[in-house]
Amino acid sequence: MHVQKHFGKKGVLLVNLGTPDAPTRGAVNRYLGQFLTDGRVIDSLPGPARQLLVRGIIAPVRSGLVNPFALGGSTKLYKELWTENGSPLKYYGEVLTERVAAELGDEYAVRLAMRYQSPSIESALDELLAEQVSSITIFPLFPQYASATTGSVHQEVMRILSRKETIPNVNLINSYYEHPAMIKVFADNAREMGDLDQYDHIIFSYHGLPQRQLKKADNCNHCYVQQDCCSTIGRVNQFCYSAQCHATTRAIARELGLPQDRYTTSFQSRLGFDDWAKPYTIDVLEEWAKEKNAKKLLCFSPAFVADCLETTIEIGLEYQEEFEEWGGEHIDLVPSLNDDPRWVGAVTDMIRAETTETVAG
Question: pLDDT tens digits, residue range 96-114?
Fold first, then answer.
């Protein structure tokens, strides 16, 4: 097989979900409007109905835009999340991009994009194409694949590139939920918090998804059909978000030498009234506080590679308050990967592995 020679740089696009441009009603409304009208995010309604519901009710209400005398719930939370560097998700994405580019060297052109808001995928792709890159590798900053995250990123990339006259070689990375270097960083971050025996239990909390979306991943033939459907991962459920989350948990637990009765995999951030991936993190916390008299818990959040609303606010503040009300004392959150040099090295290694040319006869 002949491999085409690279005359230009190898383009790399790191993509995260997104964040409002500012913790204001208008910016949060725009972000929620773009995010929640994505057909891969809210997949239970046809396009027109989804647009009407999100832009007419959900986004304005949650952002507080419809009531200028009250601060919307989401806007209030983003104000609490914001730092002197702005949105942590975007700030750490920018630092990661800069440091990965430095590690990869002049052979690569690296950009950051957000699926929703800025910097947009389209603007980042235009910059790479303007540099006349010979290839583009799309690296979603989601370790586990889900249609609503990685799938949406890939769809948007293909939509944009499909309108270009010239399309370079494109490599779409699907997931890296068990990558050894990433697993070790999460485990090392936990080790740095002290003896794990000080905790009554360890929780691995992932962002939730509606069960209907999980079932679609295997054409409704395995998920919630087979008993213990996430206990192993193979051909039939290789793209199942829940199965990949459980695989991440098992990998970190093995690295730490944790027996199965020391940890639980759960899911947070449920919206609406449909059944989502279970068990729900909030229910697990309540059970350990009320029924098992737990006082101190350790919580991982391995679906996120940077501090964000779901980690800093939902787990660090909201779940902490609930846990205390139920009789618990403290939940320690394992630090996210953020701009950790070990995480920078892991991303760099994965990109090099994906972009190294091989020639086979």
Answer: 999 999 999 999 999 999 9
* Closest among 37, 38, 78 to 59, alpha carbons compared: 37
Is it true that domain 194-333 has CATH number 3.40.50.1400?
yes
d(CA 248, CA 243): 9
- Listed in order, the ranges of the chain carrying CATH 3.40.50.1400 are 10-176+342-355, 194-333
Residues 47, 39: contact at Cβ < 8 Å?
Answer: yes
CA-closest candidate to residue 128, choices 90, 166, 99:
166
Query: Under a CB-based contact definition with an 8 Å cutoff, are residues 36 and 58 in contact?
Result: yes
* C-alpha distance from residue 135 to each of 80, 98, 99, 167, 318 (Å): 40, 19, 20, 9, 43
Buried b vs exposed e over 203-242: b needs ≥16 C-beta within 10 Å?
bbbbbbbbbebbbebbeeebbbeeeebbeebeebbebbbb
- For residue 260, the 8-state DSSP code is G
- Of 67, 49, 57, whose CA–CA distance to 32 is shortest? 57
Query: What is the CATH T-level fold of the domain 10-176+342-355, as seen in this structure?
Result: Rossmann fold (3.40.50)
Q: Are 26 and 59 in contact (CB under 8 A)?
A: no
Would you give the DSSP letter of residue 105? Answer: -
Strand 330-333 vs strand 135-140: parallel, antiparallel, or unpaired? unpaired
Give the model confidence (pLDDT) of 247-288 as tens digits. 999 999 999 999 999 999 999 999 888 899 999 999 999 999
> Tens digit of pLDDT for each residue in 313-337?
999 999 999 999 999 999 999 999 9
Neighbour tally for 52: CB within 10 Å: 12
User: Do the bridges between strand 10-18 and strand 108-116 make them parallel or antiparallel, or are there none, so unpaired?
Assistant: parallel
242's tokens: 């829940």
Q: How far apart are CA 115 and CA 122, in angstroms?
A: 9
